[in-house]
């Protein structure tokens, strides 16, 4: 963390206005956290329904703070007004930093990032919240990869302290410094890591998910596995529930990236339950149906 702070000091880019592209589970959470911690943020999506969900989630979280007496109503209103939802790319011109948080698909991300780079003013820092895709792969279609790095938040954004900042081969120190600075402003604990599929956390987490999926394929009852991991092993949630929180579509995309990156250790398993659920439109908590059903 101290090293990260030193890097922040080396940066001259002041982040006064942020933007997030993709208003899903992560984009909505990033918008909330940024507004809550005092950096106004523009939240862009291609679907009005996603923007409405993102804003709804932010008001719910803020409402809870007011209910618990931790926030005054006027601060809630001020925080909400610091999030500007939009469907229009041109509204992001004033941002000093853009966090891309669209679907975990390299082709979609490359296209979104290339367009953002083309439209954004000189000096804007561009980041991706990708969970697993290598930063150098995403940077390959950019003309200024020095201004780009990974900024990987964890779910739920308002509760998880860690942010992985991923340095691509061509990322400049200035860019890393600005992103570390922004992460610290958001009250997060940034770590700067090297680039590889899954970075640091998902290189640990996805083999764990693979172990769980294999158990299920071999006939284990997923709910019992979760109960043991929660009640006896003592983790806050078991792997099945955690996969529902992450989103089974997203987890399935990540599994594919990890398998391509580590073909011998992380090969895709036959009858992988996450892949089966995702194929059958069971995306986890986001659409109330995954390993578990939600009402
Ligand atoms: P999500 O499915 O909840 O949201 C994705 C959003 O992107 C949707 O609202 C969709 O409308 C929008 N979108 C798609 N194409 C777009 C485009 N061209 N322009 C603007 N918006 C577009 O997904 P999520 O869980 O928020 O994941 C987003 C990213 O964050 C992924 O890269 C994922 O790997 C990463 N991530 C997810 C988690 C998690 O636990 N869910 C954790 C860390 C990182």
Automatic annotation (TrEMBL):
Query: Which stretches make up the 3-hydroxyacyl-CoA dehydrogenase C-terminal domain?
Result: 198-294
Query: The 3-hydroxyacyl-CoA dehydrogenase NAD binding domain covers which part of the protein?
Result: 18-196
Q: State the signal peptide span.
A: none
Q: Which family does it belong to?
A: Belongs to the enoyl-CoA hydratase/isomerase family.
What protein name does the entry list?
A: enoyl-CoA hydratase
Which portion of the complete protein is shown here?
A: 305 to 599 of 725
């Amino acid at each position: 963390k101290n090293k990260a702070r030193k890097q922040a000091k080396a940066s001259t880019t002041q982040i006064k206005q942020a933007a997030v592209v993709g208003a899903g589970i992560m984009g909505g959470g990033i918008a909330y956290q940024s507004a809550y911690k005092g950096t106004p943020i523009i939240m862009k999506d291609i679907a009005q329904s996603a923007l409405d969900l993102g804003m709804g989630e932010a008001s719910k979280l803020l409402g809870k703070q007011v209910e618990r007496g931790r926030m005054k109503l006027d601060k809630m209103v001020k925080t909400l007004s610091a999030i500007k939802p939009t469907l229009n790319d041109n509204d992001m011109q004033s941002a000093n930093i853009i966090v891309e948080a669209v679907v975990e698909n390299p082709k979609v991300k490359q296209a979104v990032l290339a367009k953002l780079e083309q439209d954004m003013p000189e000096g804007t820092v561009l980041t991706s919240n990708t969970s697993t895709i290598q930063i150098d792969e995403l940077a390959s279609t950019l003309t200024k990869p020095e201004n780009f790095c990974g900024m990987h938040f964890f779910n739920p954004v308002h509760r998880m302290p860690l942010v992985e900042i991923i340095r691509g081969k061509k990322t400049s120190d200035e860019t890393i410094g600005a992103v570390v600075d922004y992460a610290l402003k958001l009250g997060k604990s940034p770590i700067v890591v090297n680039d590889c599929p899954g970075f640091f956390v998902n290189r640990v987490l996805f083999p764990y998910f693979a172990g769980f999926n294999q158990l299920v394929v071999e006939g284990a009852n997923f709910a019992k596995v979760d109960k043991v991991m929660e009640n006896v092993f003592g983790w806050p949630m078991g792997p099945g529930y955690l996969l529902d929180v992450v989103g089974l579509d997203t987890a399935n995309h990540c599994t594919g990236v990890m398998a391509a990156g580590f073909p011998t250790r992380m090969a895709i398993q036959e009858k992988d339950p996450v892949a089966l659920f995702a194929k059958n439109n069971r995306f986890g908590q986001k659409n109330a149906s995954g390993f578990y059903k939600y009402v």
